[in-house]
Write a sequence for this structure.
C-alpha cells in the first residue's frame, strides 16, 4: 500500500511539472526574445547615434557645475564599446566675464576622459586616461570685484580660503601644449607659463610620470617639475609617492611627498628643504605675510590634513641665526591662521634688521615693508606688465606715506629709524600667534643675552606682548601694539629699561666706561604712521631715564663745567679718576615728533649737570646742550655748554663758544631744575623716590626752591 501511495505521488508531481512547462514555455520565449531585440536596437542606436546632438545639453550641464558659460564648438566623440569607455570633447571653452572678455577662462582643442566601469561598480572612481590637448587657462582677480573663475552670483571668497583639490585616481595624465596665465591684483601676482605632463616610460621606473611647468612669476623665472611612479599602477587604496623641485625667483624647494589616497590632495605628507633670499618673497606662493629676513635655508616634514598644514620638525638657519621649532597654518576661516613656536640657540641681532626695514633691498618680488623687496623699481625685478604695480603708498593706505613728518620738509640725509612702510594689506589678510626665544645673542655693540617675544595678529591688529631683551645685567622689556586696520596704522609702544648696568657700554678702546651704575627708564609713545620713522615723527608721549647712583669719570663731569685746565687736561692725559654720581634724571616729552627735555639733571660730587633742548624725529636732528655748575669755586673755569647736534645717524659734540660769559657765583637754582623730578621717578619706578641718593637730591631742592621765591 505504501508503495502504491509513493507511486501515485510521484506521478502527480510529474504531471504538475509537465503542466507548468506547457503553461510558461511561451511567455519565457517571448520575454527573452524581447530583451534580445531591445539589446540589438540599443546597440544599433549607439552605433549610429549622432553624439554631437548632445553638445548643447552637455555644455549646459558644464555651465551648471562651474557657474561659467560653457560652449562646445567641435565634435563630441564617444567610444562606448569597452570596459573603459571614453568621451572626447573638442573645442571646449569656458567664457570669461564681460569685464575680461579678451580670452576664455579655459579653452582646449580637445579634452578626453576615460572611465573604468568595473571599479565604478564597486564604488571607486578611477580614470584610466585623462588628456588635455593644447589647454589654455587664463585666471584673473581684480583688486576690487570678483575673480573671473567664480560664478557671477557667487560670493567673493577671501584670497586665503580655499579647499584642497580632491581628484579621482588617474592612471594616465597627458597635458600637451598647455598655457597658463594668472594675474592676481589682490596678491600682486603675475604668472605666465607652459604646462606639460605624460608618462616617460611604461614600466616600474620611480620617475615614470613627469609634470613640468615653466614660465615667469612677476618677470622672474619659475620652474616646477614633479616626478612620480607610473600612473598605470595607481590604486585608490594605496599611497602614491612623488618628488617636486620648484624654483621661483630666489626660492628653491625640494620635496618628497606621499599622497595617502591618490589623488586626494586634502591629505599628504612631504619632507622638504626650502631656501631663498628673503622669507617675505614666499607671499606670492603662500599668501602668508611672512617677515623680511636675510638668506634662509630650512627643512622639515609637512603634514597636510584637511584645512591644517603642520611642520613639527622645522630646522635650519635664517641669516647667521639658527632656527628650530613648530609651524602650522590653518585655512577655512576668514583669514589663514599662522601659529609657530620657534627658538634659536644663537641669534645674530643683525638678522632682525630686514624685519624692521633696516638696510632692506629696494627691489624684489615681495616684502612686508614697501622699502624692502616689495617696492617697485625699474629693472628685471619690477612687476610684470599685466601685474598690478606694487605702490607702497597705495598698499599702506597712508596718504602721507612719503611725507616723513607732515608740516615739515622731508630730509634727504640718511635716517637712523627705518622708513620702510608696512604693507598693511598683507597684515590684514592673515592672523598669527607666534612665540620666539633665543638663548644667546650676537650683538657686538649691545651686550644682549636673551630675546623673547609673543606676537599675535588678529584682524589687522598686531601685538607683541611681552617683548624682552635681556642684557648681562638688566632687561629691556615691554609691549608694542600696531593697529594696521586703521589708515594709517596706529602704534602704541610701552617699553621699560630695568636695572641696566651702564658699565657694559663702552668703546672697544676704552679701559674703563665713562659711566657706571644702574639705569632705569621707560619709553611710552603713541602715534600714526606706516613705518618706524613715520610713527616716531608723529608720536606723542614721554621718554624718561633715571640713574639712582653710580660713578662717572671725572673728565666727563669736569667737561660739563668746562674747567679748561682741569677738564680738558684730564681728557688729554687719559685720567680714569672716578667721581660719585649721586642721582641722574632725564625726562623728555614728545609732541608730534618734537622731543623736548623737561628735566635733565645729573648730580655728582663735584658738579651739578643740567641739560635742555631735544631732538626732532621728523628730520632726526639733535639740539641738546649740557652744562654744569661746580659746587666749589674753580679758577680758569669757562662756563660754556657742551652741545650735542647733528643727526641721530651722525651726531656731533662740541663747545658753544658764543655762550661764554664771565663766571657767576650762583648756579641755576635746584628748585627750578627739580620741580618735575618726583613725578618722573614715580613714572619710571615708584620706589625710586625713596632711593637714598635721589631722595637726598629732592630734599636738597626744597630749600633752594624756597630761596628763589
Amino acid at each position: 500500500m505504501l508503495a502504491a501511495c509513493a507511486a501515485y505521488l510521484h506521478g502527480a508531481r510529474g504531471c504538475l511539472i509537465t503542466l507548468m512547462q506547457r503553461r510558461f514555455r511561451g511567455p519565457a520565449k517571448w520575454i527573452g526574445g524581447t530583451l534580445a531585440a531591445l539589446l540589438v536596437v540599443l546597440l544599433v542606436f549607439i552605433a549610429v547615434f549622432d553624439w554631437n546632438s548632445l553638445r548643447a545639453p552637455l555644455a549646459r550641464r558644464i555651465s551648471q557645475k562651474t557657474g561659467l558659460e560653457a560652449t562646445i564648438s567641435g565634435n563630441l566623440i564617444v567610444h562606448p564599446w569597452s570596459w573603459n569607455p571614453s568621451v572626447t570633447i573638442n573645442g571646449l571653452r569656458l567664457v570669461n566675464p564681460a569685464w575680461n572678455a579678451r580670452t576664455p577662462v579655459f579653452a582646449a582643442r580637445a579634452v578626453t576622459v576615460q572611465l573604468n566601469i568595473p571599479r565604478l561598480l564597486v564604488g571607486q572612481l578611477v580614470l584610466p586616461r585623462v588628456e588635455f590637448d593644447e589647454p589654455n587657462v587664463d585666471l584673473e582677480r581684480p583688486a576690487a570685484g570678483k575673480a573671473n573663475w567664480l560664478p557671477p552670483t557667487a560670493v567673493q571668497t577671501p584670497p586665503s580660503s580655499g579647499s584642497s583639490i580632491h581628484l579621482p585616481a588617474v592612471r594616465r595624465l597627458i597635458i600637451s601644449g598647455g598655457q597658463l596665465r594668472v594675474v592676481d591684483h589682490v596678491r600682486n601676482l603675475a604668472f605666465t607659463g607652459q604646462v606639460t605632463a605624460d608618462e616617460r616610460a611604461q614600466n616600474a621606473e620611480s620617475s615614470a610620470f613627469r609634470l613640468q611647468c615653466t614660465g615667469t612669476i612677476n618677470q622672474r623665472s619659475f620652474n616646477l617639475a614633479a616626478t612620480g611612479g607610473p600612473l598605470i599602477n595607481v590604486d585608490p587604496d594605496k599611497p602614491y609617492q612623488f618628488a617636486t623641485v620648484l624654483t621661483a625667483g630666489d626660492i628653491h624647494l625640494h620635496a618628497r611627498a606621499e599622497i595617502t589616497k591618490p589623488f586626494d590632495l586634502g591629505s599628504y605628507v612631504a619632507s622638504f628643504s626650502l631656501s631663498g633670499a628673503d622669507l617675505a618673497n614666499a607671499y606670492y606662493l603662500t599668501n602668508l605675510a611672512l617677515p623680511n629676513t636675510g638668506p634662509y635655508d630650512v627643512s622639515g616634514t609637512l603634514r597636510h590634513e584637511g584645512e591644517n598644514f603642520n611642520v613639527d620638525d622645522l630646522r635650519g638657519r635664517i641669516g647667521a641665526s639658527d632656527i628650530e621649532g613648530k609651524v602650522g597654518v590653518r585655512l577655512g576661516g576668514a583669514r589663514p591662521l599662522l601659529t609657530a613656536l620657534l627658538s634659536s640657540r644663537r641669534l645674530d641681532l643683525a638678522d632682525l634688521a630686514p624685519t624692521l626695514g633696516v638696510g632692506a633691498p629696494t627691489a624684489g618680488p615681495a616684502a612686508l615693508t614697501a622699502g624692502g623687496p616689495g617696492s617697485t623699481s625699474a629693472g628685471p625685478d619690477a612687476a610684470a606688465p599685466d601685474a598690478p604695480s606694487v605702490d607702497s603708498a597705495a598698499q599702506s593706505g597712508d596718504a602721507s606715506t612719503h611725507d616723513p613728518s607732515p608740516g615739515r620738509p622731508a630730509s634727504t640725509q640718511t635716517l637712523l629709524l627705518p622708513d620702510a612702510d608696512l604693507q598693511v594689506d598683507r597684515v590684514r589678510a592673515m592672523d598669527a600667534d607666534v612665540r620666539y626665544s633665543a638663548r644667546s645673542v650676537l650683538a657686538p655693540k649691545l651686550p644682549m643675552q636673551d630675546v623673547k617675544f609673543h606676537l599675535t595678529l588678529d584682524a589687522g591688529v598686531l601685538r607683541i606682548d611681552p617683548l624682552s631683551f635681556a642684557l648681562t645685567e638688566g632687561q629691556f622689556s615691554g609691549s608694542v601694539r600696531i593697529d594696521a586696520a586703521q589708515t594709517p596704522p596706529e602704534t602704541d609702544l610701552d617699553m621699560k629699561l630695568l636695572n641696566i648696568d651702564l658699565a657694559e657700554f663702552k668703546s672697544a678702546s676704552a679701559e674703563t666706561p665713562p659711566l657706571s651704575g644702574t639705569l632705569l627708564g621707560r619709553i611710552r609713545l603713541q602715534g600714526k604712521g606706516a613705518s618706524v620713522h613715520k610713527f616716531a615723527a608723529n608720536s606723542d608721549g614721554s621718554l624718561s631715564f633715571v640713574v639712582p647712583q653710580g660713578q662717572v669719570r671725572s673728565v666727563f663731569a669736569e667737561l660739563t663745567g668746562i674747567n679748561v685746565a682741569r677738564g680738558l687736561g684730564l681728557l688729554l692725559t687719559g685720567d680714569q679718576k672716578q667721581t660719585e654720581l649721586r642721582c641722574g634724571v632725564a625726562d623728555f616729552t614728545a609732541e608730534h615728533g618734537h622731543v623736548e627735555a623737561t628735566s635733565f639733571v645729573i648730580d655728582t660730587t663735584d658738579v651739578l649737570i643740567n641739560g635742555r633742548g631735544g631732538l626732532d624725529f621728523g628730520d632726526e636732528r639733535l639740539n641738546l646742550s649740557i652744562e654744569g655748575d661746580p659746587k666749589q669755586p674753580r679758577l680758569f673755569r669757562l662756563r660754556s655748554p657742551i652741545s650735542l647736534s647733528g643727526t641721530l645717524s651722525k651726531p656731533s659734540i662740541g663747545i658753544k663758544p658764543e655762550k661764554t660769559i664771565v663766571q657767576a657765583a650762583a648756579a641755576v637754582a635746584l628748585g627750578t631744575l627739580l620741580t618735575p623730578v618726583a613725578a618722573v621717578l614715580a613714572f619710571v619706578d615708584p620706589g625710586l623716590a625713596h632711593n637714598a641718593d635721589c631722595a637726598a637730591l629732592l630734599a636738597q631742592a626744597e630749600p633752594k626752591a624756597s630761596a628763589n621765591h
